[in-house]
Fold:
Amino acid sequence: MTKKILIADDEQNIVISLEFLMKREGFSVCIANDGQEALDKVRSESPDLVLLDVMMPRKNGYEVCQEIRAEPALQATRILMLTAKGRETEVTKGMAMGADAYMTKPFSTKELVAKVKLLLDIPA
Amino acid sequence: MSLKSRQALAIATACILVIGVMAAAGIAVWRDLGPEERGVLEPILNPRVGLLVMIGLVGAGAAAVLMKSFTEAHLAGPALLADEIGLVVATDPSRRLKPAGSADLQRIAEAVNNLADQRRSLQEDVEARIREARLSVEEERNRLAALMSELNQSVVVCNLDGRILLYNNRARLQFKALSDAPTAAGGGEIIGLGRSIYVVFERSLIVHALESIQERIRRQSAQPVANFVTTTRAGQLLRVQMAPVLTAATEADGETAVSGFVLMLDNITRNFEAETKRDQMLHTLTEGSRSSLANLRAAAEMLEYPDLDAELKDRFLKVIRDEVQGMSRRLDDTANAFADSLKTRWPLDEMLGADLVAAAQRYVEKKIGLPTKLEDVDPAVWVKVDSFSLLQAIGYLASRLSDEFEVREVRFRLTSAGRLAHLDLIWSGQAMSTETVMAWELEPMSFAGESSPLTVRDVVARHDGEIWLQREKTQHRAFFRLLLPSAAPQDQVEAATYLKGDSRPEYYDFDLFKRIEGTHELDDRLLSELAFTVFDTETTGLNPSEGDEIIQIGATRIVNGKLRKSESFDQLVDPLRELPEASTKIHGITPEMLVGQPPMSKVLPAFHAFAADTVLVAHNAAFDMRFLELKEASSGIRFDQPVLDTLLLSAVLHPSQESHRLEAISERMGVNIMGRHTAIGDAIVTGEVFLRMIPLLAEMGIRTLGEARRASEKTYYARIKY
Structure:
């Protein structure tokens, strides 16, 4: 069964790359362009993993993360936070909000794929 | 009894005594005679009664003459001496007695003269010492005041009650910026001698700072100061440093006591804004770059996949182009913005460019002995410079030109170039090589006895400027061009306000160090020590109850017996009704002048604050007060302080004079009238008149506010009601 990945980012320039990358790795992909849409898609599409950007309009990544973790039905959803905020305090906050992993921009796409697979228990 | 009557009495007594003794002797002898003896004598004496009376009168006359010369010697002489001594003691200490009369009297006169001489020299000595002491105190005060007025930092000194004793011009300008009132008082409703600092700062804030200072003093800290940052009513951010004013240690307890405090204020709103802006810039630079880099890297890595179709490849390439452009733009923006904020780092002073050039001229002529001339100097250019190091750099360059290239004269030129100013140092003759110039720029400056570790390059870097050599081949000359940051010319306004008023600053009054008791006992306070707000209004007409309104309020303050013209309130008011043409003839205010002026609802609170804690003084105060009172209901502002009226006081002083109009009184009091019939002009004249009335009233026994009010009430004019 193909795993489904939700890419939540308001920057089209990264979404293009991530979409291509994830599809190429054999995942099915859906996309959200802001925090609220991300939350709606998590509920409607039930993705296995969310690539979640922190700085988004309407709702930021921290809020989305917190709300997902507050809903028992969504507990299986893995969350990988992607952010330009590189300070240790922000990483700590992301993890505290319930993210499973955290990657600071700019990141290596290879490492990203590896981390996604690790989170989804897919052998590399 | 006067000397004359005493003399007359003595003479009369002597006459009566002589006649009495002679008569008594005659009567006693007559009584002793037997009848036959009387019979024998009667015919002998009877025809000679006239002779007997004559003898009696001659005896009396002789007694009178004798007595007269006696009283002159022993009564008039000492009395005259006593009078003379009285004069020496009471009126003229330089007067001396003329020894006269008896030898004893002459000796007394000489002794008194000696005593008077001694007293005189003692007095002169004491006076000289007092004069000396006063002079040195005055000198110190003036020096302090001058120093403070030059300070670039705001300084306010208060006593423990929070009353302002001293402030400098910078503080006044700063409070002006803090004032949320219209232009009216120019910050004068906030800062002024005797005003409370608690209008600006929370009382608890000051109390807390004072406590921590006390604590530090107790711990014998080397620097018992306190710092705090606070926001003002107008939303400005102030950094405050507080230092105590200590009284000298008394011998009794050997401890110093805090008698007041000094506040040094820094408006850091702008710094804070600059810092916030810098933070934001850093933020966009780091985070913005991170996500751009992420996009770039991801796109680049996607391009490495061989199975990419042409369309996808184009899309990834477009991403890369986009992001590179975005990053370049961001970098440019940051670089520009940082260039601005870097300038504020080194403490640069803003000064008029022409002043800088004049200073450079003097410097080069005096230090190097090189003649100078001016070319184009733009009088409107302001620069932001560290003038000391900059003058050194100019002097150094001029000295090398003179020493190594035998330049006979240098010229200066100053032109504006937007955010920068060009300062050119021009000379005629051969131009040196670029290498030489480089060497000059990079060597530590040492010339004409000056030696600095800095190089010209350092100085230029401090100003975030540039320097280069440029040749004007056609004119056979060359120049160094210094690129300096220019400053906003609005500072000229500040400089103008700075010069306003007397050269001697009115901003201090140490006599206020004495604690001022609560205002509730004002009636028993001396007129000479109260604070007054002297004011005047111009109005649309004479009948406030029929809709006439105030169109101008002018006021000034009297503190410690001095008129503080620099603390004034001068505001036009939009009456929100039409202005009768007839009234314009009186006050010269036209309807156009009132356009855009604040209405009474805005001005009244500001004036109320200006007049807080003072006694109001006005000429024909009842008229002005009536206008103010009619606004009480709508504005909720009550002027409940005591009011004095110079018209009534004039009637108290000169009840027989017919006119008590302001012109007439000021003429009587010798006050020069200038700018009458503007509210502020009249207020100042009224203030001068009032000040001159205080000593005259005191001569009549009217010294306190209560006495002045009671005397005013008694005069006829008090019964006039508007």
Observations:
- The two ends of chain B are 57 Å apart (CA to CA).
- The longest helix of chain B spans residues 103-150.
